[in-house]
Each structure stands twice: as structure tokens, then as C-alpha cells.
Specification:
The chain is α/β, with parallel strands linked by helices. It is built from 15 helices and 18 strands. It is elongated, with a radius of gyration of 28 Å. The two termini are 39 Å apart. The model has no long low-confidence stretch (mean pLDDT 90).
């Protein structure tokens, strides 16, 4: 997203201009993001500041700001406002009187207490208080004031994005654990460290009872080399990855397991094994959905289909879209918003993706696709940014707030998904829908965390399928 840059200036107050009793006050409100940013930069992860439940257990109303955040506010005033640019910090003394919580408007005041014209040393009283209320921090700052007048351009191009990479995973795990009954999941050929670790992590979190389908000797060698304890996990011994996929599919067809989790084998091995079992087929087209927590987006984002259907037809896109809507509803989105992506936002007969988008929207109007609010075609910028949509005169109930991005084909979807992960810093997980059992499916390059999150998705869907089968 392009950011408009503005020219703002800071002007210093020189030592000669300062006098005892002179003061300046700046107002600021603490946000949750401020607390998280300070914790990330300082490394101070005291749970009083980052864990709301812990803070309440300590008798507080909730998590509080770090004490030094108040000190940083004082530094901000001294260095940018009063005395301003050219000020050199020499000493700071602070006394913290009360905790500071998010959402509280604050006044930060500094007042000249004494100055030495010969050395340029100035002493200032410092106070951080609730707006028109009680003091939260009091102290004294000693600075060397600027000798000469300075007018400096204030940088407004710096951007700080706070992202809790674990928040989405914690949310998924909590939702999956809330279902109560523990299901059985077949782990298909987890014969490398990360796929095995992800499966064992999922079992340790109580997501499911694992049934590991793999060559026993190879599996034990991987576990031994990585120092992983298989515990009481049941091992279904098979000769190779093809046999692992076939055996896992057979177990799912027989109802022995309620979900599948891909290990270190190729995706097509698992999918072909599932497709070969009529008991696992439904009237739906099987499709893959990525779930991403994106640092610069305000809620989880689903992307489909970026892994299975290479060049889906209109009918196949109908199934892909319905699968994604159903998944979003399982994840707690009552009426998910869907942006059908194309290169442009208008229907162009030369672009099949725009024709498909228009047809899918009409299918929604006719009740052929249900449960979501769907709009398209939309270019990516119009889908994600309400400002971009407004600039282009697009009125859309989806623009700027989609829960689901439906891509035109696998190539564009795969590129988008990997850009989100590798350039955008998104945390991703993935699952296959459309069969009688969900399949936790990630890239072989993914680590244990992505596999754990994918397992949680599969468990949530498996529980849903028991009451509302496809």
C-alpha cells in the first residue's frame, strides 16, 4: 500500500531561550500495539505486560505498559518538542506511581527547573499523568540544551507493524480443544523431522490421537536422529509412501480415522489415494484452502485454491467457493465475505476470470452458492484496500474486508500464497476439503508450526463433518 508522506518540521528551543518555569505538554493514548511493540523491541516479555490473564491473576485490571514506556514518552517530548532537536540526554530519574493501561489518554509534561548558561545543562521536572487526572510517573531529566536554533524535517515515513505470530495458532488450538472428544488422525508418511514434529506437537496439544502410517524402520530413524519421542503413538507399518497413502485412505474409508495429515510425501500421492476410495468421495470437488494470519491485515485471510485445481472451470470454482465459505463458517465467521480476484474489476470478455467472477456472483444471487457475501471481479488492491476501491469509484460490500480470496487459478494462487508467507511475513496453514474427511496439507518446506496449525484446521472440520457431513 502506498503511503502519503507529509512534510512536518520540528524546531528547537535554544538554551538562551529557555527559562525556569517554562513548560511543554504533549498528549498521547496508550494502545495495545504500543505495549506489544515495546515488548518486541526491548525483549521485556514480562507476562504482566503481554498476558492479560496473568496480569489479572496478579490483581491488576489487565496487562499494563512497561514502566520505561513512560520514560520513552518523556524522551519523545525532550527530543522532538521541548527543547527539541539538538537536545542531548544526560540523566533521567523516574518514580512510577501507578500502572498505565491501554486506552487511557495521557498528558506528558516537562518543566524547566534550573539551567546553567555556562554549560548549557538544563534540569526539568517530568510528569506523566492521566488526562486531567492523577500522576502516573514523576521524575527529573537533565539534558544539554541546543545552543543554536535548529529546524529539522520530521520523518513520518517510519512504520512499525506489531504482529503476534502465535496469536492465530493459539486461537485455532483453543477452538479445536473446545470440541471435547478426541478424534483419530492418520499421519501419512511423516518421514522427516518437521512433519513428524508437527504431528507429535498436535497430539501433545490434545488435538487428536495419532495413527502414524509409515515404514517403521525409517520412522524410528527419523525420530531418533531428531530426538523426538513417539510415546504411545500407534504405528501402522507400510513399505513406502504410496502404500502409506493407500493405507491411510483405507482407514479413513472404514471410519478408523476421522482426518488425514500429510507428511513428507507428495500431495498427489495422498489425493490420488483418497480419490480412489468411493467411500471418501462426495458431490463436491476437492479443493485446498490456505488460512493466513497476515501482519498487515486485520483478520485471518483464506486463499483458495492454490494447491489442487490447476485451471478450474466455472463449475469447479463453484465447489471451490462453497468449500471455502463452509470452512470460514466453521472457523466462526457467520457470513464470510468473498472477493473473487482477477486482474481488473470490470467484466472483460477477453478475460475468462472476470466472466467466471460475474457468473459466480449471479449463482450466489440464485442460491446455487450459499452462506457468504460474494463480489467480483475485483483486482487485488480493490479487494484488500477500501481506499483503492473508493479511488476507482467501486462500491462493494466486500472491498477492504474480505475473509476469503478466490483466485483465478492455481498458479496465481500459489504465487499469492507464497508472497504472503515469504515477503509478507504471514503465518499460514492449509487443509483440503470436499472429501468425507479433511486433510491437513502443507508444503514439504513448511515447518512444524504450520503443520500444527493445519492439524487444528482439520480437527475443527472433522468435528463439523460429524454433525453436518458434506
Amino acid at each position: 500500500m502506498n503511503v502519503e508522506l507529509r512534510e512536518e518540521w520540528m524546531e528547537s528551543v535554544t538554551c538562551d531561550e529557555l527559562y525556569v518555569g517554562q513548560s511543554a505538554t504533549v498528549t498521547r493514548s496508550l494502545t495495545e500495539a504500543d505495549i506489544e511493540a515495546f515488548a518486541a523491541v526491548s525483549g521485556d516479555l514480562n507476562p504482566t505486560h503481554v498476558d492479560d490473564d496473568y496480569a489479572k491473576g496478579e490483581g491488576l485490571l489487565g496487562r499494563t505498559a512497561h514502566g520505561m514506556w513512560s520514560g520513552a514518552l518523556v524522551s519523545t517530548v525532550l527530543g522532538t518538542v521541548f527543547p527539541g532537536p539538538g537536545t542531548v540526554y544526560v540523566e533521567q530519574r523516574m518514580r512510577f506511581l501507578r500502572p498505565v493501561r491501554a486506552g487511557v489518554p495521557l498528558e506528558v509534561s516537562v518543566t524547566v527547573k534550573a539551567k546553567d548558561n555556562a554549560t548549557g545543562i538544563v534540569t526539568l521536572d517530568c510528569v506523566v499523568r492521566r488526562m486531567h487526572g492523577e500522576d502516573l510517573m514523576v521524575g527529573e531529566a537533565i539534558v544539554k540544551a541546543p545552543k543554536h536554533k535548529q529546524r529539522v524535517l520530521r520523518s513520518n515515513a517510519l512504520r512499525w507493524q506489531v504482529f503476534d505470530a502465535a496469536a492465530g495458532l493459539k486461537s485455532l488450538l483453543a477452538m479445536a480443544a473446545a470440541n471435547g472428544e478426541r478424534l483419530h488422525c492418520a499421519i501419512v508418511h511423516p518421514c522427516d523431522t518437521e512433519s513428524l514434529r508437527g504431528a507429535l506437537d498436535a497430539a501433545e496439544h490434545g488435538l487428536f490421537t495419532p495413527v502414524i502410517v509409515a515404514p517403521r524402520d525409517k520412522l524410528l530413524a527419523v525420530a531418533d536422529e531428531a530426538g523426538l519421542d513417539l510415546g504411545s503413538a500407534f504405528i501402522e507399518d507400510v513399505p513406502h509412501s504410496h502404500a502409506a497413502a493407500e493405507r491411510a485412505a483405507a482407514m479413513a474409508a472404514a471410519g478408523e480415522v476421522q482426518a488425514l495429515m500429510k507428511g513428507s510425501l507428495h500431495t498427489d500421492e495422498v489425493i490420488k489415494a483418497v480419490l480412489a476410495r468411493p467411500e471418501l468421495r462426495t458431490k463436491r470437488r476437492m479443493s485446498h484452502v490456505f488460512r493466513f494470519d497476515v501482519p498487515t491485515y486485520h483478520k485471518p485471510l483464506l486463499v483458495t485454491d492454490a494447491a489442487l485445481n490447476i485451471a478450474p472451470t466455472l463449475e469447479e470454482k463453484m465447489h471451490i467457493l462453497q468449500n471455502a465459505i463452509d470452512m470460514a463458517r466453521v472457523l466462526g465467521v457467520a457470513q464470510p465475505k468473498v472477493a473473487i480476484l482477477a486482474a481488473v474489476e470490470s467484466v472483460n470478455p477477453k478475460m475468462i476470470a472476470t466472466l467466471d467472477a460475474a457468473a459466480l456472483c449471479k449463482m450466489v444471487d440464485r442460491g446455487q452458492i450459499t452462506g457468504g457475501i460474494v463480489d467480483g471481479p475485483l483486482a487485488f488492491d480493490n479487494a484488500i484496500s477500501i481506499e483503492a476501491a473508493r479511488t476507482k469509484g467501486i462500491v462493494s460490500p466486500v472491498a477492504g474486508d474480505p475473509d476469503i480470496l478466490l483466485v483465478p487459478d492455481l498458479i496465481s494462487g500459489n504465487i499469492l500464497a507464497k508472497q504472503l508467507e515469504y515477503l509478507g511475513g504471514a503465518m499460514g496453514s492449509g487443509v483440503v476439503l470436499g472429501a468425507r474427511v479433511p486433510i491437513a496439507l502443507t508444503s514439504r518446506a513448511d515447518g512444524a508450526t504450520a503443520r500444527l496449525a493445519s492439524a487444528a484446521l482439520a480437527v475443527l472440520l472433522a468435528h463439523s463433518y460429524r454433525t453436518r457431513p458434506l
